[in-house]
Amino acid sequence: FTQASSLLRDQPWVAMPPVDARHLVVKITLLRPITVLGDSAGRGTQLERGDSVWLALLHDDEMMGFAIFWCRLDCEARMLPPTLDHADVHREAPRCAYEAASLEATTATAAVEMPQKPAKLKRTKPRSYDLRAGSELVYNSAQAQRLHWPDVKPWSRPLSERDEGIAQGRKWWARPPLQEASLLYREATLVPFDDHDTIRRFGLPVPGLAGVGVQGTGCYPVPMQFKSGGVAAGPTASVCMWLEVACA
């Protein structure tokens, strides 16, 4: 709630350049692991260094906030203007999937050992793609593929699945729970009663903002997690942590 209140005060929707905010998307990649406690015994999950999400700002006359997606194809399916589709989106030039992941998970001051000469990229057999990035998995060596496999295995899918899904206008790509989540700022009357009870119990900050909410009296941050378009139970602790990271 503290991070969400700070984001609302910063008003990124207003500070943006003159472009439709609903179609501006950024990728967030963690540069260090974050531990998320899940219960009183200290058991939980960890967001790993190199994990990433796609963030899209949401802003119109009735709402504001943002959505995060664990899969680029999900983000495109929901956020692209009606006049565009997946085939119209610029794709980066093919590069070794292991080297790309290593670069994203490394700070600007750290060095990543790269080959002196560009190697010929090799496809996997059978051909596959990374569900998170939507791009085909290619490598400059068998060693690079072996090193990358533990990270990409849960997200690896047959390339034919991607091509068929794009051709058929597929709307949902990633598997729950890491599919889609959002943080919206709502009026008090639109906030669940359980959330109001939690706000009072812990004294959580609820920012006021002129012109937003009922006579500008307040905007309540409402986190939500989605499953194939419907609101799912939760959000989970790890999803809440991702929303906090996005606010920061």
Write the topology of this structure.
Elements: H1 2-10, H2 12-15, E1 25-29, E2 34-37, E3 44-47, E4 52-59, E5 64-69, H3 72-79, H4 97-104, E6 122-123, E7 128-130, E8 135-136, E9 138-139, H5 142-152, E10 156-158, H6 159-167, E11 180-186, H7 193-202, E12 220-227, E13 230-231, H8 237-247
Antiparallel strand pairs: 1-4, 2-3, 4-5, 5-11, 6-9, 7-8, 7-10, 11-12, 12-13
How would you sum up this structure, described in words?
The protein has 248 residues and is α+β, with helices and mostly antiparallel strands. It contains 8 helices and 13 strands. The protein has a 6-stranded antiparallel β-sheet with strand order 1-4-5-11-12-13, with helices on both faces. A hairpin with a 4-residue loop joins strand 7 (128-130) and strand 8. The protein is globular and about 60 Å long. Residues 107-117 and 210-217 have low confidence and may be disordered.
How many beta-strand elements? Answer: 13
Taking the sheet with the most strands, its summary is:
6 strands, antiparallel
Helix content: 25-40%
The secondary-structure class comes to alpha+beta
> How many H/I helices?
8
Strand share of the residues?
Answer: 15-25%
pLDDT averaged over residues: 78
Summarize the structure.
The protein contains eight helices and 13 strands.
Give the key terms.
3-stranded antiparallel sheet; 13 strands; 6-stranded antiparallel sheet; 248 residues; alpha+beta; 8 helices
